[in-house]
Amino acid sequence: MRAIAENIYFEDSYAGVTVGAITFPYGTLLIDAPLRSEDARTWKAALLTQSRGTHRLNVILDMHADRTLGIRGIEFPIVAHERTAEAFQERTTTFKGYNFETGAEWERYPEVSGTRWERPNITFTDHISLHWGGPEICIEHHPGPTSGASWVHIPAEKILFVGDAVTPNQPPFLARANLEIWLEALNLLTSRPFMDYAIISGRGGPVTVDAIREQREFLKSIDGRLKTLSKRNAKPEDTLKIIPDLLKKLSFPSKMESFYTQRLQNGLLQYYRRYSE
After folding, report:
1. b/e for 172-192, b at 16 or more Cβ within 10 A?
2. 190 in helix, strand or coil?
3. Beta-ladder partners of 116
4. Whether the Cβ atoms of residue 230 and residue 273 lie closer than 8 Å to each other
5. Is the pTM of this model over 0.85?
6. What tens digit of pLDDT does each residue of 137-187 get?
7. Topology of domain 2-209, per CATH?
8. Is a pLDDT exceeding 70 seen at residue 75?
9. Which residues contact 186 (CB under 8 A, 6 or more apart)?
10. pLDDT in the model for residue 258
11. Span 15-40, mean pLDDT?
12. Could you give the count of Cα atoms lying within 13 Å of 13 in the half-sphere of its Cβ?
């Protein structure tokens, strides 16, 4: 557990996503959850030893299984954007763990199959604010990676948890994305009001302005290539031809190439099918 500011933390050692926590005098807010239930319980226990107050909430920054499967091990009320909550209505009660080969982290952990989904208890449309004895905590809707993607913003501390808006040194998840809206969110992150912020990615922890700009250029490249294919009336399978060039733009261990290729294959096919119809 690493401190960003007093009583504000992140942890990137668990399977799944980078998680966060805020332990203010009136309560504790968890940001996402480790993928495995046992890790989620460990994370919760570590925080409760130093938490104060009686309020407990777990915010989920989008509906991705990597950040939502472990919530059952937390057992706090769940807050999410209304569109994220709607996505849970489309799911079966129990996670089946089919091998979709999407390049998601959960695919490395077959033990998560059979997990029962925990659905959000509290939803919001634009933003929701918490006043728990410390600086204001704002949970804000910033779509792009998904329609219900959100950020946790602590303005007084200049801290942002941005989920999958930035995925340094790995391909983004595209299946439910809207690239144009996503690029607007990245433009906001690189704007003057956020220049001095600590920005925490849900896939790797703190990121620099340069990393955000690289993410923006990567998404622009994808957007341009897909629009070119669409103008040519190309088939969805033709999107697979651009994957090698896209991977060359990223820096990652060679052992991850097959895994990240799967992620792009799944994401590009689904994205192109949605936006070329």
Report:
1. bbbbbbbbeebbebbeebeee
2. coil
3. 94
4. no
5. yes
6. 999 999 999 999 999 999 999 999 999 999 999 999 999 999 999 999 999
7. Metallo-beta-lactamase; Chain A (3.60.15)
8. yes
9. 144, 165, 166, 212, 215, 216, 219
10. 95
11. 95
12. 7
Residue the block writes with tokens 């897909």: 226
Q: How many CA atoms does the CB half-sphere of 223 hold within 13 Å?
A: 14
The identity of residue 8, as a single letter, is I
User: Which H or E run contains 9?
Assistant: strand 8-11
**97 pLDDT higher than 80:** no
pLDDT tens digits along 215-232:
999 999 999 999 999 999
**Mean confidence (pLDDT) of the chain:** 94
Q: Where are the domains of the chain?
A: 2-209
Give the C-alpha separation, 23 to 17, whole Å: 20
CA atoms within 13 A on the CB side of 165: 34
Q: Is 3 exposed, middle or buried (0-12, 13-18, 19+ CB in 10 A)?
A: exposed
C-alpha R_g of the chain: 18
Phi, psi of 30 (to 5 degrees): -95, 140
DSSP 172: P
Phi, psi dihedral angles at 61 (to 5 degrees) = -85, -15
